[in-house]
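Subject — a protein and its fold
Encoding — discrete vocabulary of local shapes:
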Amino acid sequence: MKIVYVAFRGHFSDSPRALYEALLARGTDATHTWLSAPHTQATFPADVTTVPFGSPESIAALEQADLVISNDHIPLDWEKRPGTTYLQTWHGTPLKRIHNDVRWAPEGRLAYLEQDIARWDLLLSPNAASTERLRRAFGYRGVIHETGYPRNDLLSSPERDRVRAAVRADLGVTDDQTVVLYTPTWRDDLVFQKTGPQDFEFPVDLEDFTTRLGGDHVLLLRLHNMVMDRLEIVDGSPVRDVCSHPDIRDLYLGADVLVTDYSSTMFDFAITGRPILFLTYDLEYFRDELRGFYFDLEDVAPGPLLSTSTELVDALADLDAVSARYAERYARFRETFCHLEDGAATERVLDLIVPASAPGTVTTTRGGDDRAR
């Protein structure tokens, strides 16, 4: 069996990585090939076979595969051969409108991506709240399996404390320091109407952050993979650039608090139970003009929506009070969006495509409008 993995057009991460590692652990008889990118090649283990994303070799690998596992559209021109199974894991619970539901997209972009959607055989949903949103947004008529995300199993694993300690040690963070992970989402006008190479707006007042919180707090910056080249960090800055860290799931475990805006990282990080703050300085513009939401963030957010850097630093300085104030909302948020994140998503997905009783075969349920749980 030939399996090809794609994550964010060339990363070694996310649910494809979790499934790959589990297949190796199961001893599945398969040939594993990853599509990589030049800037991510060094993050792949030395024993992983890779081919460059978009190269003739990558097209050949996709066209010869028995199983393709991807967490995003594969915007390449390739012919899926009969008998190949394409598992689309996707990569986040949608707050932001996606695909057909977006307010605006470059001419021809959605039509081109439709070619990839037509190849999907299985689509994963992270929770019941997302299933029909994903179906409608993609116009997908196949089976959707509500499994949770394999990438998040580590957050509930017995290994989580060991990984947390290892990540913090690697970052040089002590036990008494508070690690703040900042994960702003990308903005359509920045990506599709780019005005310069370094035009990402950084809304945190770093001088105020350092003065008021001091060395007790470490700020990790994890930009979205579509804009990770848009910000230069000056030497001596309190910000640590973790954009090139191979997998964000490790950073979730190493962090003590998440700061985001409209990123789907909020849903993943909620599994940890640690505080989440929302720096939503452009909320009205992003929600009402640029992208649009599927639900009102103000009604369900498990933490405060903060419009200024000053408000953010205030909240970071008094996290215990913030956590107590939002405890009930946080619990409801987890019930809605994390009810399948029990550490067993990977096994549920593998049982769909590679049953343990027949490790050398691929099986799938195709077609129809059924929703499987």
Summary: DSSP finds 15 helices and 14 strands in the chain.
